[in-house]
Amino acid sequence: MPTILVLFYLAVAASKPDIASYRPLFSIERSTNANVVHYEARVTEDGKLDPADPVAVYWIMVAEDGRRQELNYLEKSRAYGFTVKCDPSDRSCNMALVSQKDRPIRIYLEGDTARAVTLIGGHRAYLTRIYISTRRVLLIRTVDYIELFGVDVTTRENCYEKVLPTR
Q1: Per-residue model confidence as pLDDT tens for the chain (167 residues)
Q2: Within 13 A of 6's CA, how many CA atoms are on the CB side?
Q3: Domain span holding position 30
């Protein structure tokens, strides 16, 4: 029986690409506290995005003890989760945050750097950071505005956009 388990483990391990490293993409900061959501590209040992699971997301609990923590179900489904679809023809992936489905993000590798490209203020830009300002109304937290920060793909100048929620 133990031999069967070992063979099963080896078969499962062989079916997944070995992850060589993670490369930072962008982060989300909020007005509620210092905790930060980080997005990273999963890169295989052969230097490609992991086609099965190209993006990792997690909290860094800065307001507490600085530990890494996974997102819970509600955070994944309503705020910081995402959908991603890879395009094997150009080794990129198209990503959309569940809270910003109308703003696609293209993920790809440029040398050793992972890129997250989206429109910021009308410019194609490398997304570096998102800031979300919220306030509590009774028991519910509402978004006042979202700020997008990045670097223009062509000019390398800083880009910024403030997005007001549609109500």
Answers
A1: 444 433 333 344 444 445 679 999 999 999 999 999 999 999 999 999 999 999 999 999 999 999 999 999 999 999 999 999 999 888 999 999 999 999 999 999 999 999 999 999 999 999 999 999 999 888 888 999 999 999 999 999 999 999 998 86
A2: 3
A3: 17-163
Residue 82 falls within a domain, yes or no?
yes
* Predicted TM-score of the model (pTM): 0.86
Any domain includes 48 = yes
Is 39 part of any domain?
Answer: yes
Domain count, the chain: 1
